[in-house]
Amino acid sequence: MKSIIKILFVINVLSITTTSCVSNYVASNDTYKYPTTNEMLVSYHPKNVKISDPVLVSNEYHSTTTNTKKDVVFDEDSNIYAEKNFSKTAYNLLSEARTYLGTPYKYGGTTRRGIDCSSFVQHVFAALNISLPRTSIEQSHKGTYVSKHNLKKGDLIFFAHTPKSRISHVGIVESVSPSGEIFFIHASSSKGVTISSLDKAYWNSKFRTGKRILNSDSDEEAQNNDKIAKASV
What we know:
- This protein is of the alpha+beta class and 233 residues long.
- It is 30% helix and 16% strand.
- A 6-stranded antiparallel beta sheet has the order 3-8-4-5-6-7. The protein has a two-stranded antiparallel sheet with strand order 1-2.
- It starts with a helix and ends with a helix.
């Protein structure tokens, strides 16, 4: 009987460590409702902003302002949380990521009916024809290292339960405030695909590293020019 129990325990451990991300990363510890980029704009300019995608606006967050849409179309360049050197690729990436907001969390899930953290990231990047591995630990081996204070929109951030445990959760930087507060979009087990703040103690204590997968616009332009130059030779 003891040997059977041990075997079942080993199988359970293996199933957890090989799945994309563990299921007990929650957002319910946070009492603050994190707004999306569009919601931030509405809260600052409720009479002048038209939200291009109504699904991104939470009626729970802005019950009195979501209906005050005028003729000004949302422009990422006017976003108060937009970096000056903002990548067009990152904009497209986040536009895709936000279409998943509200998608239920499912342990090992890979569809819009239910998805986990690394599958969410994998699908979002795949929409831009960028291939990433299935699990968060494997995704953390891709790209180039980015320190916390240099994180930009579109960067990946990784978490672990303890300093010595392996990477088990991943999110995408959604915006960085002027004060340096980092908001990220991810699939949490309690709220599904949502936006959270890295400043919250729960997430800050579990943050391990940042990785940049996307090239900057200058890098993209240089690569395109190089391809054109080679083709003309």
